[in-house]
UniProtKB/TrEMBL annotation:
<dbReference type="GO" id="GO:0005739">
    <property type="term" value="C:mitochondrion"/>
</dbReference>
<dbReference type="InterPro" id="IPR000701">
    <property type="entry name" value="SuccDH_FuR_B_TM-su"/>
</dbReference>
<feature type="transmembrane region" description="Helical">
    <location>
        <begin position="104"/>
        <end position="127"/>
    </location>
</feature>
<feature type="transmembrane region" description="Helical">
    <location>
        <begin position="148"/>
        <end position="167"/>
    </location>
</feature>
<dbReference type="GO" id="GO:0006121">
    <property type="term" value="P:mitochondrial electron transport, succinate to ubiquinone"/>
</dbReference>
<comment type="pathway">
    <text>Carbohydrate metabolism; tricarboxylic acid cycle.</text>
</comment>
<feature type="transmembrane region" description="Helical">
    <location>
        <begin position="77"/>
        <end position="98"/>
    </location>
</feature>
<keyword id="KW-1133">Transmembrane helix</keyword>
<protein>
    <recommendedName>
        <fullName>Succinate dehydrogenase cytochrome b560 subunit, mitochondrial</fullName>
    </recommendedName>
</protein>
<keyword id="KW-0472">Membrane</keyword>
<dbReference type="Pfam" id="PF01127">
    <property type="entry name" value="Sdh_cyt"/>
</dbReference>
<keyword id="KW-0812">Transmembrane</keyword>
<dbReference type="InterPro" id="IPR018495">
    <property type="entry name" value="Succ_DH_cyt_bsu_CS"/>
</dbReference>
<dbReference type="InterPro" id="IPR034804">
    <property type="entry name" value="SQR/QFR_C/D"/>
</dbReference>
<dbReference type="GO" id="GO:0006099">
    <property type="term" value="P:tricarboxylic acid cycle"/>
</dbReference>
<keyword id="KW-0408">Iron</keyword>
<keyword id="KW-0349">Heme</keyword>
Length: 168
């Protein structure tokens, strides 16, 4: 039926004969104003449908791989904040980090803790970045190797942090 109508409509005689076009069926459209959807939050909608609340991260046991990944991101943010603070201090004019730390008159233990808090994010991010480069080369990707390199990376970053802490 539709093919017949399309063939008749596309016929040359139909195109050039307006009388045949006027015999077409008329369609009217009724305008209905749109209704506003109810503003309902995600939690309220789930309560209305009696859906249980998702436990999210509380049901998962923390794993070494996820914790190392989160820590890698955190150390990257911390290193960025160190660079931003150093840049602001450099722009501010005549500012010396060494003279500012000496003015605090910290004890040996406090100074070592301060040095370690600066050295650990750097060494962790560095060693874990090297680990990621090995992964990009397709090495150490089995579960056993991922965990082994994870523990080795933690050990190496702590040793490097301690070496940087007691260097000066």
């Amino acid at each position: 039926m539709a093919l017949c109508l399309a063939r008749n409509f596309c016929n040359r005689a139909t195109i050039f004969n307006p009388a045949q076009l006027s015999s077409a069926r008329y369609v009217s459209i009724k305008v209905v104003p749109a209704t506003q959807p109810a503003v309902e939050g995600h939690d309220a909608r789930n309560a209305r449908f009696k859906r249980p609340q998702s436990p999210h991260l509380t049901i998962y046991k923390p794993q070494l791989t996820s914790m190392l990944s989160i820590t890698h991101r955190g150390t990257g943010i911390l290193l960025s904040s160190y660079v931003i603070a150093a840049g602001i201090a450099g722009i501010s004019g005549d500012f010396s980090v060494v003279s500012s730390i000496e003015a605090l008159q910290l004890g040996a233990a406090s100074l070592a803790a301060l040095k370690f808090s600066i050295a650990f994010p750097f060494s962790y991010h560095l060693v874990n970045g090297i680990r990621h480069l090995f992964w990009d080369m397709g090495k150490f990707l089995s579960i056993k190797e991922v965990y082994t390199t994870g523990y080795a990376m933690l050990f190496a970053s702590i040793v490097l942090s301690l070496a940087l802490t007691f260097l000066f």
